Structures are given as structure tokens and as C-alpha cells.
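Backbone-to-sequence.
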């Protein structure tokens, strides 16, 4: 039985809520439900997300978020230095859970590592650049730093730098599958977009940044020979720069499917949106570590079309729970769309199989158990 007396402090320096913050919030909710003492280094986007989810959240240091960067990061560095002075006074085991590369860098620079253990929760597939090599070298020079990667793709990218495998383990992100159950859609999103109730819908959900491949999704839509299919794009510019979004809208308006491609903007009710869609498309053109939207679609028994890149093939079994296509290949994606649209019964079967895989591989309880075991091992080694 796990000893939950270890205090867990999440350190996160990202000023807005992205995919890593969403999955970490879900982990924090699961940890709290299992009795762990969870705290946050300061007021942050992650802490705010936890509060909105109804999880009691407290900051260990004074909170002062300044925007834009670098003032934002400077304020957090001041906070973490203030917190570091207090860590050595704690009498019980203490583990810092640093979310992402930036958080790990700041944490290792400021935290007295003789007194605490640090988990670098890595959500990125690292490219073999000198920059990443230097980051990995500096972070793992500290013996109390352990890495938790979100997928085998992330793990492999880290091991390519010669990292000791004993200091790294893969822990998949998780979902509360009682909340994410297959349900019939309400019709709200179809009504708001003018999509007929019986029309097949292919949805692309995520931040509107180039590497997520929404332009490939639109190009494929224009090539699909189907008279009634509609395509939904849900998301917004991650940093406020709408250049790519405007490019997408121009691209959508320039082809035969123009009147059936809909931009829904950023949506909070992703469950409701996906429940009204028939197929989720993840057209990433760069290695996507472990797309949250793919996991959510699988939980809702929706088949997924995804790029054969990054962690996506770890989630989708080609021909069983969805279809995989080469990245940045609009023609191949269009053919996969037509294949699913032509056989809706087979597509529904893939979705049902995806739900089974999600229950086996991506349950939040499994994620919490794996991290709980890691916390306990690191705390006992102090």
C-alpha cells in the first residue's frame, strides 16, 4: 500500500493552459482523490485550472504572475527562490513535480536538491539539437532528478542523448473514464454550425499552430468526394497570433468544401463537441508526444485518423481503432477520410475498440498509481 504522506509540489511556469497543463490538472485531481497532499509553487495557470475543476489548490509561495514574458518567468523565478528557502525546513518527504522543460530548468537552478527529489515530467519529443543536448545534460547532472515521459516516443528521444534508462520511465497520461463515457450528442454544435443531424462530421480539435496540421486537414477536406460530410475545426491561436488562423480560413474558403468547413473557435465543452462528431482527425506534421484529443476521442468511442508520427501510433492501432497516414500528406488523409465515410459501421467498430484500449491503457487511476509509486521511491531515497 502506498504511503501518501509525501508532499507533492507541482512547479509550472507556463502563463496559459495548454495540453500539458490539462493533463497535469487531471493528474492532480486524481492524486487529491487518492489522498495525496498536492500543492503548487505559486499562483499559475495550472493552479487556476485545478481550482476551476473543484480541486482544493494552495500555493506554497507568494503569487505574482507578470505578463508578458520575460516578466512572467522572472516573477516565477523569484517565487521559486523564495520557496526554496523554506523547503529545507520541511520534516516530511517532499517531491517536486516539474511540468515541462522550462519548469525543470528553473526548478533545478533554484531548489536545494539535497533536500528534495525532482520529477521532470517531459511532454515533448526532443529533437537532436545542441540546445536540447545541453538542456538534458544540465538537468540530469543532478542525481535527484528523475524523468517521467508521457510516451515511448518521448522516451526514445530522451534516450538518444545517452541518458541512463534507470532514470527514466514512461507513464501515460490518464482520463477519468467515468466522466468520459460515450454519450449521444445534444445537437448544440450541429445547430450552431448549420450541420444537418444526419451529416457525418470529421473534427480537428486543438491549438491553431502550424505543426498541428489543420491546413492539411482542410486540404484533405477539399479532396474528399462526399456530398454531405462536414468538417469542424475547434481551437484558437495558442499565443494570440492569429496569422495562421487567418491563413486557414482563407484556405477553407478556396475549395469545393468551403461551405461545409466550420471554425468553432476555442471550446470548453470538448466532450460535447466530440460526442456530436463521428470521426476525430489528428493531422500533426511534427512528432506529437501523446495528443490529449486522441485519448478523449477514444474514451468517447470515436474512431481516429492520425499521423504516423510521435506518440500517435502508440494510441491508434491502424485498422483496429483508427487509421494512420503519413504526416503532411493531404492526399493520403483524404483517402483515409473517404474510407471511413464509406463504411460507417466499420468506423463505429474502430471507435468501440478504441474505448477498450483507453480503459486498459489510459485510465487516470493507472496514471495516479504509477506516479504514486514513483513519488514514494524517490522520497524514500532521500
Amino acid at each position: 500500500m502506498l504511503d501518501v504522506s509525501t508532499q507533492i509540489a507541482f512547479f509550472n511556469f507556463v502563463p496559459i493552459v495548454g495540453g500539458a497543463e490539462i493533463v497535469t490538472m487531471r493528474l492532480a485531481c486524481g492524486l487529491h482523490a487518492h489522498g495525496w497532499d498536492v500543492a503548487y509553487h505559486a499562483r499559475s495557470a495550472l493552479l487556476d485550472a485545478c481550482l476551476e475543476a473543484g480541486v482544493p489548490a494552495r500555493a506554497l509561495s507568494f503569487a505574482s504572475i507578470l505578463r508578458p514574458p520575460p516578466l512572467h518567468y522572472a516573477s516565477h523565478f523569484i517565487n521559486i527562490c523564495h520557496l526554496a528557502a523554506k523547503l529545507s525546513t520541511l520534516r516530511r518527504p517532499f517531491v517536486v513535480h516539474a511540468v515541462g522543460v522550462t519548469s525543470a530548468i528553473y526548478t533545478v537552478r533554484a531548489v536545494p536538491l539535497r533536500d528534495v527529489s525532482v520529477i521532470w515530467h517531459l511532454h515533448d519529443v526532443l529533437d537532436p539539437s545542441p540546445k536540447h543536448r545541453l538542456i538534458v545534460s544540465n538537468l540530469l547532472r543532478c542525481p535527484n532528478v528523475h524523468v517521467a515521459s508521457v510516451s515511448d516516443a518521448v522516451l526514445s528521444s530522451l534516450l538518444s542523448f545517452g541518458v541512463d534508462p534507470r532514470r527514466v520511465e514512461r507513464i501515460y497520461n490518464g482520463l477519468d473514464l467515468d466522466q468520459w463515457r460515450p454519450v449521444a450528442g445534444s445537437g448544440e454544435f450541429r445547430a450552431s454550425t448549420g450541420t444537418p443531424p444526419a451529416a457525418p462530421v470529421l473534427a480537428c480539435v486543438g491549438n491553431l499552430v502550424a505543426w498541428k496540421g489543420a491546413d492539411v486537414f482542410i486540404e484533405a477536406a477539399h479532396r474528399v468526394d462526399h456530398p454531405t460530410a462536414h468538417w469542424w475545426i475547434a481551437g484558437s491561436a495558442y499565443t494570440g497570433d492569429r496569422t495562421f488562423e487567418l491563413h486557414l480560413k482563407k484556405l477553407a474558403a478556396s475549395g469545393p468544401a468551403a461551405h461545409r468547413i466550420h471554425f468553432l473557435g476555442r471550446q470548453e465543452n470538448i466532450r460535447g463537441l466530440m460526442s456530436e462528431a463521428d470521426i476525430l482527425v489528428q493531422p500533426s506534421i511534427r512528432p506529437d508526444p501523446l495528443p490529449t484529443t486522441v485519448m478523449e476521442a477514444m474514451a468517447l468511442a470515436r474512431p481516429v485518423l492520425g499521423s504516423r508520427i510521435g506518440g500517435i501510433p502508440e494510441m491508434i492501432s491502424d485498422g483496429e481503432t483508427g487509421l494512420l497516414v503519413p504526416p503532411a500528406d493531404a492526399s493520403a488523409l483524404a483517402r483515409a477520410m473517404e474510407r471511413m465515410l464509406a463504411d460507417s459501421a466499420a468506423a463505429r467498430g474502430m471507435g468501440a475498440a478504441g474505448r477498450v484500449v483507453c480503459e486498459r491503457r489510459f485510465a487516470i487511476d493507472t496514471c495516479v498509481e504509477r506516479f504514486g509509486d514513483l513519488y514514494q521511491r524517490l522520497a524514500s531515497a532521500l
